Amino acid sequence: MHINGILEFDKVCKLLKSFRFCCRDLSYNKKLGGTLPTTIGTLSKLQNLILVGCSFTGEIPQEIGLLSNLIFLSLNSNKFTGSIPPSLGSLSKLYWFDLADNQLTGGLPISNGTSPGLDNLTNTKHFHFGINQLSGSIPGQIFKSDMKLIHLLLDNNKFSGSIPSTLGLLKTLEVLRFDNNVQLTGPVPTNLNNLTSLAEFHLANSNLTGPLPDLTGMNSLSFVDMSNNSLSASDVPTWFTTLPSLTSLYLENLRIGGEVPQGLFGLSSIQTLRLRGNHLNGTLNVADFSSQLQLVDLRDNAITAVTIGAGTPYKKTLMLAGNPFCNQVNNDDARCKATGQSNPALPPYKTASNCAALPPTCLSNQLLSPNCICSVPYRGTLFFRSPGFSDLGNSSYFILLEQTMKAKFLSLSLPVDSIAIHDPFVDTTNNLEMSLEVYPSGKVQFGEQDISDIGFILSNQTYKPPRTFGPYYFIGQHYPFANELLQTSKSKTNHIPLIVGVSVGGAAVVAALLAFTVCITRRKRSPKQTEERSQSYVSWDIKSTSTSTVPQVRGARMFSFDELKKITNNFSEANDIGNGGYGKVYRGTLPTGQLVAVKRSQQGSLQGNLEFRTEIELLSRVHHKNVVSLVGFCFDQGEQMLVYEYVPNGTLKESITGKSGVRLDWKRRLRVVVGAAKGIAYLHELADPPIIHRDIKSSNVLLDERLNAKVSDFGLSKLLGEDGRAQITTQVKGTMGYLDPEYYMTQQLTDKSDVYSFGVLLLEVITARKPLERGRYVVREVKEAVDRRKDMYGLHELLDPSLGASSALAGLEQYVDLALRCVEESGVDRPSMGEAVAEIERIVKMAGAGAPAAESASDSMSYASRTPRHPYGGDSPSEYSGGGLPSTRVEPK
Q1: What is the pTM of this model?
Q2: What is d(CA 619, CA 679) in angstroms, rounded to the nearest whole number?
Q3: CA distances from 837 to 409, 755, 776, 822 (A)
Q4: Binding residue ranges for ATP
Q5: Which residues participate in the annotated binding site?
Q6: How is domain 528-645 classified at the architecture level of CATH?
Q7: What gap in Å lies between CA 189 and CA 206, rounded to an integer?
Q8: What is the annotated localization of this protein (predicted)?
Q9: Does the bond joining 689 to the residue before it have cis omega, within 30 degrees of 0?
Q10: Superfamily for 652-860?
Q11: 767, CA 20 to 30 Å: which among 231, 312, 330, 705?
Q12: Handedness of CA 526, 530, 534, 537 (dihedral sign)
């Protein structure tokens, strides 16, 4: 949300309190400042408090600790002062904790029996506290073996004392930054090499003493910087040449002796070696080197000779000034110059243009996109706090970043034509900065809602960059909407000017209205198109169960009984394409020629009035390529019928069990799974308000003519925004075998309940087994059988034989890992659906399963193919007995 002028945040809080909302994102508003009021603690439903890049001052209110539902707390890049409130240690659900780039002082609070502390945040994965003035010792009590921290950023502060040995307990840690704390002293803990997941390790510019730490076995390390300390080693450590992922080794101005091992230059991923100012001596042998190696800085050492070898000499940057070798050659050798021997410097990375001919001339407020189209891009700066590479001339990193970001936007149905990145550089705090431009598709300028969605995806970490980029944040620029001047003039009325311009960072744009909330208005699309399809609109009381109340909502057409009777040829057997406990499904053809599927409930159906109404309401508000579309409904002559788009290739369940005639090999199954995951992620992350499906299973995933997955059957779904919380107390409903046991036991419904069901579906896809049959549970069977020491994890006997040879199942181990993470007993240990989508997309690339341009179901039909069934409403009760259970759906009292 962009604020026009300074607002009293207290007034905003009072306005928002009266609404049902789940988040608060006012990021990138430099005009939004002042102190945060204590009344913020009354916003008990708040899940996301994101105030990145504003102008807030004063202390962080301790009342934020009362926001027990908080998941994201991002207050970075402001001007907050004072200490970190110990009360924040009460935020047990906190996932993302970012206070970086402020003016905070004091130490890291720990619990003491009367007040909480950061050591209580065992489920938090991100501690981002860098670029402040925090001081005192780093308390050892803060680190525990049960913490799930993956990013610990304490850089650019004033911490003193030694690094606690309890740091070695954080085995999940991937990024560690203690650099630029000049008062840190003492040795590096000897148990540091317990951190085998650590990828980026920064200790530079401190006053650490003792031996250089032993990094043996830390095979995930890609970036190591311990420069400018008092660490020493009489000889080069053996681990120098044993780190397979190492791209960057920075060990400047230490006291390391011995010869530089030849194998260091040949590490397959190595890009930069900065070893200046040590006691390295003897002969330097650069005969064999990696093609990735761009810079070797060995200035100010004791090297006496250099051997290049008989092969192709190393022609990139080699800096040897200040070594005895250079005195021997009278400094005439180019390697002895200050800049060393190098090829001409490459210009900073810039996204390539696809203009084949003379580019068009754009208007003054437009730029030329990479696809040679004049438009107004959304611009901002990306800050990566700990990238795992140092070669900024390597375009492959940035191209991958562009591709994955664009793919994320498109997967969430945003109108993005292209992404442009340019001018990456490392700033004074060792952050990698780069300019970002996002260009619109199909129009010259983004709409307000588009900017809202793009900003939100970046501010709440919905987009996950490739792991090598590390943690990031985004600062967006003002976006010049075409109607901005008109809106600005309206803001001079007596209404509180909550919105006049840009929504950056993800909050909803609320144009010229008194007090729209963020979540309720976020991501809503214009209903214009759906209004054109609707024949009539009347109020509908969703809580009513009376059959006399006619449900008519925007986005769905109301059909009469006679209309549906006609289009299905009097519900003829020839048009009967499926059945279940609710009744039958019929194929029909509208007068426009559109094929539809008509689900007709029968008397005594398992689907009651409330489920019927729920499905209409939810499908009327969601629009995504991986969610089945509702065309309309009938509530006439005592009939209940739902009319869907016709999806011709049946269900995922029918395909993997061989009933539909559609043969799904490994790559096709991956494409189906990623489509289903995107549909569910859309429901969780971009539907407004978010939706929990509650009945994710293979029979509720339909396959269209090109085998694209579409999530269906919303009769049991629940709006997360109904009470504004991330968790809802509700009667348990779902399908046995897929049902989240945590939800079943506690009756607390969260989006992680869908994640569990999706994990079961993942296992079903590779085993072709019913999740629950005759007392056998596929989750338990896979968990007991997994042996990660063996090929294919030892699951050969459980895998569906129709998948083919194991050699063709690239990425299966990673797939199984994801499935087992999704079915963890505790919801907090499961990934979000957005994270699951990102991981499956990575597996898809590993398997080379990108969708073929012209693939259709006919390409995968077996010789025994037949017309598939279409159980749009799920399984009939007889199909999944659940080990004697009377029905596939459970509703315990």
Answers
A1: 0.58
A2: 12
A3: 12, 11, 28, 12
A4: 599
A5: 599
A6: 2-Layer Sandwich (3.30)
A7: 15
A8: Cell membrane; Membrane
A9: yes
A10: Transferase(Phosphotransferase) domain 1 (1.10.510.10)
A11: 705
A12: negative
